[in-house]
Automatic annotation (TrEMBL):
GO terms for molecular function: oxidoreductase activity. The keyword Oxidoreductase applies. The lineage of its organism: Eukaryota, Fungi, Dikarya, Ascomycota, Pezizomycotina. Keywords: Oxidoreductase. This is NAD(P)-binding protein. Residues 275-296 are annotated as: Disordered. Pfam families: adh_short. SUPFAM superfamilies: NAD(P)-binding Rossmann-fold domains (SSF51735).
Length: 350
């Protein structure tokens, strides 16, 4: 367990080390919002300044978050990038293009030091395909996120931090895997928890591949944040049974025991930018704290599957059941093919 005071000290060190550029896809609510607020709070105590981009649908929420962060740290430079439906790969591309253009226009040193991916939120929905051929839930929680990383790579690779990518979802929830139906098109395979299992395997394997390709430059992690009560649990598209159980049973009875406060969550998410999570090939340089074990079981190997307190999940067993190298190639080929097909204006059907 990383002590909260250690996480907060890492944030203070981070903001004092250099001006930062951060992108929050899904930053108009919940965990993205809390992490941006943690950044503004740390900057207000002696930081060197930051630029941030928040991507989401809700312009009013974005305005309020920007005002809140400027109230904490008046020099904050924060831009809202509107994306009406980021489950569409084309919408991801547009949002990323806007961020790249804005960074290149307003700075002689365009880059991204910290990228948080927390879009999505609605769970337990039945399968529903986007017009591009991806299941909406799987796109929000996996494909759109991997697309954003690949589109923003040119700016991520310019970071001297080096850059950190944090995908907030359900690390450690690997269960069953259908290697020949990664998209779960066979409806007898599809359920929300099955989709979650696929998205988590695919996260680990895709992130590992990126960590190998960008050694020394890029550290990537996915994390289960714990239960963080926020607007996400009141979304009208959540199934009615879930909202009722949540409101009448979970929040009043179990909530106080199991939840993580928004402030703690934001501080912990920001602290993932620390040298405890180095890119592959740099584990011995600059790491003042204990380096965390990567998804391949080796310390500091650049791709991480993390618990809410920032420690490595024990995922060994899940990957012992599969031929990992073969699956990594399969997941990489599947994902990049989806992107190529959709970019060509066609519908992905694999
Ligand atoms: N909170 C928790 O306890 C918890 C626990 C485990 C896992 N997670 C996972 O962590 C992630 C973040 O959770 P959260 O609580 O921060 O969720 P949240 O409060 O619902 O925030 C989700 C963000 O994604 C954006 N978004 C959703 N669908 C979108 C779409 N189609 N197009 C564009 N933007 C879209 C939302 O934008 P708008 O608000 O502007 O519409 C919002 O900014 C989710 O994947 C969630 O499943 C959360």
């Amino acid at each position: 367990m990383v002590d909260l005071s250690v996480a907060r000290a890492a944030n203070a060190t981070l903001v004092q080390s250099q001006p930062l550029v951060a992108v929050f896809i899904g930053g108009t609510s919940g965990i993205g919002h809390y992490t941006l607020r943690a950044l503004a709070t740390a900057e207000a105590n002696g930081g060197k300044g930051f630029r941030a981009y928040i991507v989401g649908r809700n312009a009013k929420a974005a305005e309020e978050i920007i005002a809140e962060c400027r109230g904490i740290y008046p020099d904050a430079q924060i831009k809202f990038v509107k994306a009406d439906d980021i489950s569409l790969i084309q919408a991801v591309d547009q949002a990323c293009a806007e961020i790249i253009q804005s960074e290149e226009k307003q700075s002689q040193d365009p880059r991204i030091d910290y990228l948080m991916l927390s879009q999505g939120g609605s769970i337990f929905l039945p399968r529903k395909d986007t017009k591009e051929g991806l299941d909406v839930t799987m796109s929000l929680m996996y494909y759109s996120r991997m697309r954003a990383i690949t589109k923003l790579l040119p700016l991520l690779l310019k970071s001297t931090l080096p850059a950190k990518v944090v995908s907030v979802y359900a690390a450690g929830y690997e269960a069953k895997l259908y290697p020949d139906d990664l998209s779960l098109r066979d409806l007898s395979h599809y359920s929300y928890s099955q989709a979650r299992s696929h998205m988590i395997y695919m996260h680990t394997l895709f992130l590992e591949k990126l960590a190998e390709q960008h050694q020394g430059k890029l550290s990537l992690m996915h994390i289960f944040p714990g239960l963080v009560l926020g607007p996400g649990f009141q979304r009208p598209d959540l199934p009615l049974w879930f909202r009722r159980v949540w409101r009448w049973f979970f929040v009043p009875i179990l909530g106080p025991l199991l939840t993580v406060s928004p402030t703690e969550c934001g501080d912990r998410m920001l602290s993932l930018a620390s040298p405890r999570y180095p890119p592959q090939g740099t584990e011995s340089s600059g790491a003042t704290d204990k380096v965390v074990v990567g998804t391949d079981g080796k310390p500091g190997s650049g791709a991480y599957s993390l618990s809410r307190k920032g420690e490595a999940m024990n995922i060994k067993k899940a990957y012992e059941k599969i031929n990992k190298d073969e699956m990594k190639k399969k997941v990489w080929d599947h994902t990049t093919k989806a992107f190529e097909v959709i970019e060509a204006g066609e519908v992905f059907t694999d």
